Amino acid sequence: MDGEKQQLLWRDAPSKSANAKQKEKERQELVEKTDFLSIGTHCCVKTCKQLDFLPYTCHRCKAVTCHDHRNDHNCANPIHDKQVPRCPVCSQYLVNAVKDKQTGKPMSVDAIVDKHIASGCKSHLLEAAEKKKAQRTPRCRAKGCKQALQFPIACRTCHQHYCAKHRFPEDHSCSTVQQQQRQQQRQRPQPRHPTACGTAAASRVRESWLARFAGFGRAS
């Protein structure tokens, strides 16, 4: 039995090696046909042009760059500088997001400072801009509550904005609900007061019933 198994193994060995050789040949042909240079993308920076298999696409200008130049590729739509400029003359802080009226593009920090100095240190003040923003911020309309509303909640009945504490109609004495209650009270039928005629008729009926009961008592 052992000899027969060995013979079977020797018979299968050439077929297995032939299959392995065929697979390896197919793999080599696939490698030769595939152009790996067409898989990646070259960096858009002229001084780089590096082939990157995982390129970075800028979400502002849609430029394709390598990993090294994703933040340094002369973006056509750069993010405006977030630093708060300060006037060297009056030492006041200025707003950093100002658009040019002619071009509509954000101004640079130097241009904002120059305009501020040219106006006599009166324009583009950060403190004045914050005050205007605070005035625009809606506040709770409930009586005695002046809380600034970052997330205003509108009442479904009076359509006014309130804070989370006074969001329900019963919490802010909703005027619309009060008007509805007054109308319902007016529409309710008022109880009728008994008139003189009515009282006389009621007394006569009462006397007749008493007389009947008195007659039944005598008959018994």
From TrEMBL:
PROSITE patterns according to UniProt: ZF_AN1 (PS51039)
Region feature (Disordered): 1-26, 174-203
Any GO CC annotation of this UniProt entry: cytoplasm
All residue ranges annotated as the AN1-type domain in the record: 134-182
InterPro entries according to UniProt: AN1-like_Znf, Znf_AN1
One Pfam family recorded for the sequence: zf-AN1
Ranges of biased composition (kind: Low complexity): 178-188
Coiled-coil blocks: none
Keywords for the protein's UniProt record, in alphabetical order: Metal-binding, Zinc, Zinc-finger
GO molecular function, one term: zinc ion binding
Top-rank lineage group of the source organism: Eukaryota
Record's protein name: AN1-type domain-containing protein
Species of origin: Salpingoeca rosetta (strain ATCC 50818 / BSB-021)
